[in-house]
Amino acid sequence: VTRNDDLLLGLLQFISDVASLSVIDRVIAWLNHPAPDIRAAAANTLSRLGGDAALQALLKRIRKEPVAETQKHIAEALARWPDDPKAGAACLQLFNRTNVPDVRRAVLVSAGNSNWPQRSGLIRRAMQMQGAVVVGVNAKPVPGLEDVLLGILKKSAGKHLKPALIDALATARIAAATPALVQMLAREKNVGMRLKLIFALERIGGNAARDALGELLSSAKDELEIEYLINAVGHVKCVAALPYLARLAKDRSAPLSARAQALWGLGCMPDPRARAELEAIRKNFTKHFGQFSDRAVNHDTEYHMLIVKPQLLLALYRTGSTTAEREIHRLYRESGPMGQTVLLSGIKEQKADHPIIADGLKSNEFAVLYFAIAAARATGSRTYVPRLRQLAGSPFLRSISGLGNESWGLYDLLLNDLLKEAL
Predict the structure, then answer these.
(1) For the chain, which ranges sit under pLDDT 50?
(2) CA distance 330 to 310
(3) What's the distance, Cα to Cα, between the start and end of the chain in Å?
(4) What is the C-alpha separation between 276 and 242, in angstroms, rounded?
(5) Rounded to whole angstroms, how far apart are CA atoms 141 and 201?
(6) Minimal CA–CA distance to 420: which of 392, 378, 379?
(7) Backbone Cα Rg of the chain
């Protein structure tokens, strides 16, 4: 296998998925393989394996790696050690010696989620570079970053803003950038860019962004954009959008996906009118959504008919309805795995400690169990520690932890900080 480069790439992926430390010396040796893609794959695998030996090997390789694409993968791999200043120093040296935007961007992404002492200086320097190598780093404050970003924004006045600049403005939550983002939205036609701008306004928040998102929602035509806008106005609690959301939720000519999202949006509104609208829809559910049997026979419609009732009850539960709390428990027990996962996912999002979590932790359905564990973790409650400890010792769950992406990272989710402390 190791004599064939294509098979070796597959082997490295397999080693990464099963996190096999027993072969780490072989993986380190492949960091010096003649093929750049093998070196890149070895770097990715070492990042997954972790440990000091892996770190030292990556630090040694990054100093002499000549291929930009492989440099990028090594920089991404070093994000595995966010608290080690040696990883930060190596990334800073790479940033200084390369002119390749993708490599610099990889360094900035790794730095953005780290605690490296080089982080703030590296990001500030990137903002000031010619061509504005800007990236949306995480929300930790960086001294002087707002002034630098506003300076770049001022130079871009009247021009098409670069996606990376939009990301950075959003992550830094710079309210002064809101007018420029709204102006760009007014002339932008590309749906992908429009969604990026909507997300940026949502992240920035504040009255100006809230008002802009409410106005956009009232005139939006694209189905996907409408769903994004509903999500945004829900998160920023734009009460002005409440009448629109109520109309959309009851509009039988509108796509079911948008109507289900409108129910979620109503649940986010801190206004008694939202709860009244949701209660009225619940009482006349058949009038507004029809019987399940009268749907058009297609997968998308069938899926949304399955989730719309759970979405309605979750929205009411968010507003504090005790009736919805009981109804969610009843619906959970009457539903199949799809409905149960929707309900558990909604409970997780609200970080609520609902009785269906305990039911879900007893499930034999993989997806249901996964979302129940996630919901239990979100509560932060120690109530579930005994059951989580029991699941952590399950031979079945231990065995599927080797399936990598196929298991959705369930075992890593299960062994969260709360459980590790208990163990």
Answers:
(1) 130-137, 139, 293-297, 404-407, 417-423
(2) 11
(3) 39
(4) 11
(5) 18
(6) 392
(7) 25
pLDDT in tens, 280-289: 999 999 888 8
Q: Two tokens at 331?
A: 């619906």
Q: Please give the single-letter amino acid code of residue 368.
A: V
pLDDT by residue (tens digit) across 144-202? 678 888 888 888 776 778 887 888 888 888 899 999 999 999 888 877 788 889 999 99
Q: What is the reported pLDDT for 188?
A: 86
Alpha-carbon distance 238 to 323, whole Å? 25
pLDDT of residue 146: 81
Q: Do 157 and 175 form a contact (C-beta atoms < 8 A)?
A: no
CA dist 118 → 37, 122, 200, 404 (Å): 29, 6, 26, 33
pLDDT at 413: 56
Entry pTM: 0.67
Q: For residues 206 and 125, give the distance between their C-alpha atoms in angstroms, rounded to a whole number.
A: 28
Separation between Cα atoms, residue 110 and residue 201, nearest integer Å: 24
What are the structure tokens assigned to 198, written together?
């909507």
Among residues 386, 385, 356, the alpha carbon closest in space to that of 371 is found at 356
SS3 of the chain: the string is CCCCHHHHHHHHHHHHHHCCHHHHHHHHHHCCCCCHHHHHHHHHHHHHHCCHHHHHHHHHHHCCCCCHHHHHHHHHHHHHCCCCHHHHHHHHHHHHHCCCHHHHHHHHHHHHCCCCCCHHHHHHHHHHCCCCCCCCCCCCCCCCHHHHHHHHHHHCCCCCCCHHHHHHHHHCCCHHHHHHHHHHHHHCCCHHHHHHHHHHHHHHCHHHHHHHHHHHHHHCCCHHHHHHHHHHHHHHCCHHHHHHHHHHHHCCCCCHHHHHHHHHHHHHCCCHHHHHHHHHHHHCHHHHHCCHHHCCCCHHHHHHHHHHHHHHHHHHHHCCCHHHHHHHHHHHHHCCHHHHHHHHHHHHHHCCCCCHHHHHCCCCCHHHHHHHHHHHHHHCCHHHHHHHHHHHCCHHHHHHHHHHHHHCCHHHHHCCHHHHHHC
User: Distance between CA 386 and CA 364 in Å, rounded?
Assistant: 18
